[in-house]
Amino acid sequence: MREDYVVTYRGGIVENRHRVHAAVVDAEGRLLYALGNPMRQTLARSAAKPAQALAILETNGVERYGFDDADLALMCASHSSEERHIARTRTMLSKIEAEEADLRCGGHPSLSETVNRSWIKQDYTPTAVCSNCSGKHVGMIAGARAIGTGVEGYHLPDHPMQVLVKRTVAELCDLESQDVEWGIDGCNLPTPAFPLDRLARIYAKLASAADGVDGGEESSPRDVALARIFQAMARHPEMVAGEGRYCTVLMRAFDGALIGKLGADASYAIGVRASHDTRRLGADGALGISVKVEDGNIEILYAVVTEILEQLGIGSPELRGELATFHHPKRVNTMGVSTGGVSFPFQLRGSEPEGERTCPAALVQ
Amino acid sequence: MREDYVVTYRGGIVENRHRVHAAVVDAEGRLLYALGNPMRQTLARSAAKPAQALAILETNGVERYGFDDADLALMCASHSSEERHIARTRTMLSKIEAEEADLRCGGHPSLSETVNRSWIKQDYTPTAVCSNCSGKHVGMIAGARAIGTGVEGYHLPDHPMQVLVKRTVAELCDLESQDVEWGIDGCNLPTPAFPLDRLARIYAKLASAADGVDGGEESSPRDVALARIFQAMARHPEMVAGEGRYCTVLMRAFDGALIGKLGADASYAIGVRASHDTRRLGADGALGISVKVEDGNIEILYAVVTEILEQLGIGSPELRGELATFHHPKRVNTMGVSTGGVSFPFQLRGSEPEGERTCPAALVQ
Question: Which of B188, B295, B334 sits opposite A108 (nearest CB)?
């Protein structure tokens, strides 16, 4: 297995190295390109939220309680606890006639420093509705009600709602249930682990379903649900993360052509709708991309995800330019002097035998 | 070269892996134990401060301007910008009749979240005197004055004061000047890079000098200066970091038996005075320990430094117990549920041929 690294340097001297893994697959799960170990067993964390949201959608809880697409986007979010996220969480709770006390997540500092500063100034202690996972938790309660089980313990691994989530996630990964491992997430819900390429496969399916439904193809109920999740995220990027955050900036820039989602400890997944780019890269239709930084560094994750988009040539240079500050994070000191930078001494490799597919950079127009 | 890792896990599943390097040497620079690559070319960052302080001491600037040992400890510090650190910086500036505007470092958020919260509440914007490196900067100005050069540009690589620092650091490392590389630090001063074992050697020399001076040995002026730096740090641990910070807790716990200093991007160095422990480990006298986490993660650094002290059996278990929260950082979620932990699947290896020295853990009483 090859080792690939992102390198940070100071004055031309290597400072840190971050091992990275990536998988690029099509909707059938065929591995097209890779970095590091594309089969690394990886805790998807919040990058699994669209798959968890699928389980909620399939309970009919979203229809039954009148959740709209922005609500659905919030179920897929790791939001910044901005006012709009907290207000929407409260509205979602009222739609299911539940209360904050029913949530089994806790408050925590915001993922946005701007929000944190305002909380500190107001002596505000964040509570459950401020959790970056609040939308997912309301969704799980709605799902539990929709399948007719008690809400009590909705977050526990053996609760019928979580049993349903486990089955749905395994199906999306094309794995047997016992082949998906589960830990407990920061927000107190179960979180799955599976080979990294399976995360890419989930996102390729999301994008592929959006292609199918938009193209008027006859789609299965599951594909209709997957397409709805894709569109909810693509149309409400401000709900999925927040002002200035990578997921929001990425999805705004690509304007419906892809969705992207962060997972804690530096996992990331992108679903790209079929285009000239995806065909050039060897996919029949949509593409899925998944990335994990071995040490969990999120600044490095954003840089490497952007580098991968560049190496694959997805979107125009102008469009990717909107991600420039994430791609090459500034390394300036307290006097504004540039002290170093980040480099990417790797090249995505094709999974086909040598000669059958050249490296993607060579294909970039 | 062997690869050694710290592993974090969630629900029994590997989440992140952090590659680590360490060197344990005696005052002659003999490598006794190692992890990863003990010769890794490493930017020492603030772990080099005691060596930079030696250059200042040798200008006679410390005597000339009446700095005391707590001031000297602040020159070796990456402090938390607590009131006592800022007040001492101002007093030190007045001792050299300089002003904050003469400092060529800038303000930045404090290394202490408690201090940051109070700054945000007061709408306070930190300035140069708040820099965690403020003491070193005042020291450099004092040194520049003492050698009779202008203060202007004291932070620049070609300024006579920095030329002196470069020579001093190379001498302490037992390297030719051209074999030490230099970058620009976060605080705007030059910062050296050299093989990791050389950082351990500097700290072994600091501890060895303290042993020599305390033991009434005839000591060179350099050894007297090194001993003074050791004692200043050991006696004023609250100046070197701040409330609750690792360096301060470590030095308070060991009460003069060692000094320890953090460098940004996860380098660390410890100097241990001669004892039953150091002799058991094969040193004639004092020991030096240096550590670098390849990806720059400081939480993992503190855990691995503490694990190394445990594997070496330095200090009593009760004493090392004061570092327990750094050794095994809590992994609990927003509802207080334990989600995983940190493990150290490595063993320091002796540098001698197999059979001549067993692993240190086997020697721990």
Answer: B334
